[in-house]
Amino acid sequence: MKTGLTKKQKITELYYNAKDPMAEIYTHDTKLKRRLLKYAEKYPQLCQLTEDDEQGGLRFDIAKERVSIRLTAPYSEERKSNARKWAKENGLRGEYAGKKREKAESGDDAGETLRN
């Protein structure tokens, strides 16, 4: 949907205070909007869509205890190296149900095949 807004103008804002039990989230982020709409449908007592600004932004009221901000430390070079090594040995997703992913041997770009 074309909104006429630049990417910088497509913001996400989270407001809450110490007194009120609800937080307010205003967002243009497509993934977050989908997640909040799904959550509001499943848990209407905890989350409600309160405004659609018709510019691509949605505003929700959500129970403050349902909101979490996760801060993660950057990976050390050692951890990155270990993750790369594991991925090379096990494939991007590792093994699934005893079957390991490997490239097709036909020589064409058919993608990946599964073998026992």
Q: Could you state the order of secondary-structure elements as H and E?
A: EEHEEHEE
- Strand content is 25-35%
Summed up, the helix count is 2
Structural class: alpha+beta
User: Which segments are poorly predicted (pLDDT under 50) over 5 or more consecutive residues?
Assistant: 103-116
Q: Summarize this, please?
A:
The strands form 2 sheets. A 4-stranded antiparallel beta sheet has the order 1-2-4-3, with helices on one face. A two-stranded antiparallel ribbon has the order 5-6.
Break the fold down into its secondary structure elements and pairings.
Elements: E1 12-15, E2 22-27, H1 30-42, E3 47-52, E4 58-63, H2 77-90, E5 100-103, E6 112-115
Question: How is this structure best described in words?
Answer:
- The chain is of the alpha+beta class.
- The chain has two helices and six strands.
- It is extended, with a radius of gyration of 22 Å.
State the main characteristics.
single chain; 116 residues; alpha+beta; four-stranded antiparallel sheet; two-stranded antiparallel sheet; 6 strands; 23% helix; disordered C terminus
